[in-house]
Every structure is written in structure tokens, then in C-alpha cells.
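Why does residue order matter? Because the sequence determines the fold. Keep that principle in mind as you read this record.
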Amino acid sequence: MTDAPSPTLSRRNFLGGSAAAGIAIKVSFLRGTAQAGLVEGATRPGPAWIAGGKPRTRLDAVAKVTGAKTFTRDYRARDLAGWPDRQAHAFLIAATKADRRFEDLDLSRLGEALRPDRIVRHEDLVADGLGVPPHPDFFGDRFLVPRGETPRLLGQPVAILIYHDYPRYAAAKRRLRFSDDVVRYGEATAYAPPPHYGATRWVRVAGETPEDEDRFSPFRDAPIFTGFAGDQPAWPAAGTEGASARGMAAAEAIAAEIAGAGPDALVLRRAFVSQSADASAMEPDNGNVWYDAANGTLHLMMATQSPHAVAETAAALVKGSRFPVAEVDLKAGYTVGYGTKDHHIHPLLCVLAGLYGEGRPVRLANDRFEQFQNGLKRHSFRMDTTLLVDRASGRFRAMTGSYVCDGGGRPNYSMSVSFVGATAAQSIYYLPKSDLQAVALASRAVDAGSTRGYGTLQTMSATEMLVDEAAELLGMDAIALRQANVFRSGQRNSQGAVPAGALRNDEILARAAAHPLWRERRARKAAYEAAHPGRRYGVGFAQVQKDYGTGAEAALASLEIDPRGGLTLAHVAHEMGPGVTTSQAVMVGEILGAVPERTEFGVVRWPQMPLETADQPYTTSQADEDRLAQNPRWTPRFTSPMSATNSAYYLGHATRTAARFLRDHALWPAARSLWSRGPGGGALASYHTMRPEELRLVDGTVSGAGLPPLPLARVAAEAHRLGLPVGVTLHTFNRWQWTEGLFDLPGDGRTRLPIDALALRYGAGAPPERQALMDTAGWHFVERAAVFYPPTQRNNVGTTYYSPMATLAEVAVDTGSGAVTILSHHAILECGRQVVPALVSGQVQGGLAMGIGHALKEFLPLYEDGPGDGTWNWNRYELPRARDVAVWNQTVEILAPLSETDPPKGIAEVVMIAVVPALANAVAHAIGHRFHTLPIRAENIREVLA
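Structure:
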């Protein structure tokens, strides 16, 4: 690789940890003594939640339906053990203009009785040493707008108002809402957004055949990074020296080929727009913070998907300030965010409010108006795409695209979202030549960030609409054109990497082509429109594949078996709605034949794993990583934020590996010991060739190879008697490939495992020398003999893990009102092996509803008339309801796994995407007009039909 990759090359490029040096970080999940204690869903007396290896309910089902499952928003200071009973409250005053200087506040509306007990301004933060930590390139350079300066973005806070009692807080908040004279402005100015966030270019030119080495690709060579000249990327000059120059030369050759295309080719150029949208998670952003100055402890109660990062960033925030902090103690409960609670600025604003609480815990919790005003949004994209197609064969020769996202006034993940979207733009198609530009712009809009779809919803929707139109212009069946260009196993993606496993898009296309909705669409259209005057009928299809993972996925899991055969599972995963707690428990049962009796999720304190990390998994050079990895306790990342697509595969890898370790290193030798008892070597003697893979653990019984079944409890007791490893804790790391380590196991010798850290707990019968090894919080931390981290160059991959989904949508369009009615829709999904089919079904149904909203209803203006003005709520922002999503006329088909050993895939994002372009294509079939801007609302259709 000639050019070093930019440090911004990551999907999750937030860095933390080192800036908080000297402050202890303590993160825990609510449970136990709180009045509204977090119910984790551990099994308890009553009807079994699982039978025959199949879950009857979610692990947390009883808690959910009885109201015992609580969210972070449900807590007050009195509910938290050790916190004061008194609770203070705070709210933000925000600027609703971004073209005038902020002068001051006018709180005269409040009168004397409702004046806040404390006002926090930018100048207070500066005086007290509270700068934006530690990454202004992520959170922006200002928490609050300084006097005399123009706000960076609409809705940027200018002050925090703190009240020591709830009644005055609530009354003041009501009195100031929608008031346009609270924030005083000065002279008009130009807009003052931050500098644009970045641009990357992903150019690939294949070899003579798909099997040949690429002439140029981001994986083999490098992506192209650049800055800006005004609002336009300043791409480097083409040339032969350096990867960027050669990449630009390849891009110019692709452009020349398109420009010089003759009549034998179709050149289709289209511009698409995808709107800004609100994820509308039912729990708005909230936090409760108590600064205990006497003990130097900063207590946080926070709704977040990334608790470790929040705690570390809070430590960095206060380090060097006038508020001495020795420990940050963060507690988190259940939450949901669709990505919007991953590294948002709101937790830091909560910390600021808490620091000025004068010893009182301060709660800063958005209501729905405030959530629209300052919650993270899905990025709006402008996309200019060109497709070069051979007319005779229908084969795609080249595709180019410029994918420009509006990141608003704070950087957040905009840079990352832009290139994840660009690299996904190929959708399910093999492209021998591609030039995909990713541009992340700054603006005065509300900031956008990590939201479900992560840029791919926008770009793949555009591609699917483009391909559908290309089929029409070529006179081809739209699915047949897709089949001619489908991305197949072993081929390279637009980054030049070969995706993991089998790609089954061709199977999905074949099923969709055979479906009655597609086969009979012309006859159905004629019949429906004849029977329904004034209504037009259409069927649309789209298929996409969504990456899952970040390129730096890390997890920890611990599994123990007691002498009765009872299992205990502890895991870093915490529940965000998709059912991760249920699926992890089921995975244990699949391997060990029994589900855990005791579970603890959201575990963040792992004293048995004394790992060291700078938590910079994307930017370490190969030489630096090779040096750091010589330390047997070093790892690139301790743990990952929780997201909907990392549970089944990435977090599940840790669970499955722990279960297999217990099976292979405790239950297998213990069972052999029992089977070999008796004269002449017992029942095992004649079956001495039995292999470990022949062991079967089902319904609490250990059997296999014709040997007498043994109760799991008896085998577990034998494992303890023999002093075998009856407890295992492990750490995993994935960089588009799993890390492996070599470990010297007592009694087993050197063993290669798909992990990078291991701790063991031995049974009571272990000899004294083995017992003495358990000197790390009661565990034996096994320092690895060697480790094999995936090469850092794999950061250039972009992704290698995909889940595909297709959707057929059947609609009727009212020619008078323009209203679109979804008559039915059919989805086809490939997700590997389903762990819990009911949870997959729930994800599909919820994702389809969200995608339908994006396609037909949900819309936020970006600027002055958008949510930054504080007047938006669900009375203006239209979400789909049950009647809008064909709730009783939706069907789902899930491909069976290729084998029982197929891993599960992350699917929580892909399920919302395909329905978006499918509906756009259905409307085009219905009315003969193609829309290139989303959403397609009734008024847009009326304008076309007028």
C-alpha cells in the first residue's frame, strides 16, 4: 500500500480512553436495590421460557408485559442507591437563528418566581476549564454559543437553566416554549458552520475477468482522501506516482469511457435526494448526573448505546477543570435509539448540568419537541449517479456516483456515514469499474449521526431506483436485468475485497421472479384498475445487501458451569430492543444442551481480564500494532458500542466460543472419564475412536457415538472433581476477520482459539499448583503465547459481511388525492441460521414499517423551517401507522441456511431498506412517472397527475 490510510477511515472513528488517564472509570448497569430495578430477565420460578431448545417467549417477556422492565428515563435520584433524595432539573435554551450574533438571554417572561437557580453559559464553561473533549472533530468546538458569536447550527444551545425543584422547572419550561424573544440576537452575519467534514473516493478497476487481480482498488491500493476548495472536494491530480494519483487516473479513465460510449451502450444519469429524518425512538435522550464534590465522584445515569465511551469522555471533559474528579461512576439502564444514542453530545450536556447542581443530582431529559430540535437525525443525501450498461447483454460496465451528505453543524459520524453509504452503493451488483465519491458537508442544520441505515438506505435506494429505470429503458424485465448483474460468491466488491461466505442474492432474485406479485403484475394491474376507477395499480421490486459490523468489533463473555450442571452467563451485551439477551442465552443452549440459569448482561467490569488498550482500533499502523501486540495483555479495543446489527454475529461469536470451550475442555474430558470407568476401560473402551465432534448435548443430557447418555449434572460434577476449566472468560476482536490466539492450557498444551484473551476458573479438584494460577480476581488469566490480528490494511476493506433482503410491494394510487395505499408486500431475507425466528420476524416487521415511513411520509426540512426551530413534534412529523403498512397483508420468506453450522447474520438494518426503492418503483409502475426525491408524498403525486 503506497499511501497510508487517513486516520478518519472508520465507520466508528471515535477515539477515547487515553484522555481520561488518572480518573477511574466505573460503568455498571442498574439492578438490585433501585426502587425501579432493572430486570435483566434471568429465568426464575414459573413456566419455563424455553422448551425443547426453543424459546417460548423473550427472556425479558414477563418484565416487559408487567411493567417491570424499566428504561433510563424512568429513574430519579431517589431510585438510585447512594444518591441524594433531592432531584434538580434542567433544560436547554436553544438558538433558532443561525445568521445573527447571539447577544444574551431575556428571561423577563419568567418573572422573579420562576427565575432559574443557576444559569450555565459558554463563558462559565471556559472559566471553569470545561472545553469540548477530547475531539472537536467529533462533537464540534462549542457546547454552548458564546456571546457575540453566530451559532454553528440551528438549535444549538446557548444556556442551561437549572432548577432545584420540579414545579418551578416545569412551569418555567412551559412559559418559555415557542417564545421567540428569549434569545436576543444582534447584527446579521453569514452562516458560521464548521469546516466541511471530509471526502473520500473509492475507485476500482477490475482485471480482465472477475477472477483476475484488480488493476486498482481501495483494498489493494488505498481509498483517496481529500480536503475542500470551497464547497467542492479538492481531489488530487491524476498520475502514476502514489496510490491517490493512480486512483485518480483510474477515475478519469472510467469517466472517459462513459463519455465516449457509443450506441451499443446505455448511459443513464440521474440525480436523487433522500431527506433528513428523525429515528423517533420512543425514549428521548436523557441523563441524570450527580457531582459528589466531597468524594470526587461524578455519578452518571445515562441513556446510551456506548456507556464506556460516555464515561471516558466525561472523564476527559472534567480533567483539568475546576471540578476535581477521581472517579466517574456511570450507570445505564435499558434504552433504545436506532443508533442515535451512540456517541451523541447530549450525555455531555447532562454532565455539564450536573457539575453545576451545587451538590444536587441534575436531570436533563428531552421532551419530544426538544428531541426533534437536538436529537441526531438520519443524514439527507444528494446523489448524482451514472450507470453504463451494455445494451446487448444488459451487463453493467461501469458505475459512478457522487454521494453528498449534509451532516449539520457537528461532525459526529458524518464522514463515516458518507463513505459507508458510498461503498454500499453497488448494492447487489457486480461492477467491474466503479468510482464512488463520498462527501460529508457541514451546514447549519441539526446534526446528523449514527442512525439506522447508516448512509446505505439512501445510496442503495438510489441505485435500486436507477437499475429499475435502466431495465425500462432497455426493454428488459427488471428482475432479469438484476440477475444478469448479480454479485456472486467470490467476486470483489467496490472496495476490491471478497465478501465473507456465500452470497445468495441470485437465489432471492429467482424466488422474487417466481412470486405471483411479479409474474402476474400486468394482469393484476389491468384487472384492478378496471374494477377501481380513479386508482392506479403498481408493483415494485428492489433488493439490497447491507453490511453489518464496524471493522473493530470487540466483545467479552463469561460462562461457568457449577457441579449441578447449572450455567451462568455474563456478557458485555445489553438489551436495546432486538432481543440480544434472549439470543445469547439460546446460543448457549444450542451448544451445551441447557440454557443459563443465571444471566448478567451489560457487564462492564471484568477484573479477570486485565487488558490494556489505547482504544484506537482504526488508526494504529501495522508496525505499531505489531509492537503493541507483543504485550500479551494488549488488545486494539476493549468493547464495542451496542448496535442492532452486532449482536447475533459479533457478540454471539464470544458466546458461542465460550460455550464450545466448556464443551471441549470440560464436558468432553469429563464425559470420557465417566464412560471409561469400569472393567477393561468401561463402555468407552470399544469406542476409543470417538471424536469430540461426535459429542451431543441435548436437553440436559450428554451422549454420542452410541455411548450411554449421561445427565449433564453428573458430567459437570466430574469436571469439577477433575479440576478441569469449569469457567471461561474470553475476549474477541474482529477487523473484517477474526483474531486468533495461541494459549498454553494446563493439561491440554498449546491451543489455537478464535480469541485474543482468555481467563479460566478450575474445578475444586484441581491440584494446588493449578489452583494457585487463579490469582486474578479468582481466575487464571492465561497470557497468550502468540496472537494473529487481521492486518491493519483490512481497514481499507470497508466491509466483508453482508445480509441481503428483497421486497415486492403492491400499491394503489388515488389519482384524485395522490394517496398511496400499500395493498401488500412480500419480503425475502437471507440471514444465515436464525437463532430465534420470532425475533427475526419482529425485526423484519419493524424495519419494514420504518422503511415505509421513509419512502412515503417522514420528512424534515433541513434549515430554518426544520426541527431546529423547536416547534416540531409528531403533530407535524408524520409517522406510518398500522393502516399504512399493510399490517395484515405482509408476508416474509426466509431462506433456509446452507447448513446447520451457518452463523447468524446481523439483519436489523437491512430489513428497512429494500422496501424504500420497492415502493418508489411501484409508484412508477402505477402512474408512469419516476420520482427521484424521497419521500414520495401525496402532494408530489398530485402535482404530477394534475
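The first helix runs from residue 61 to 66.
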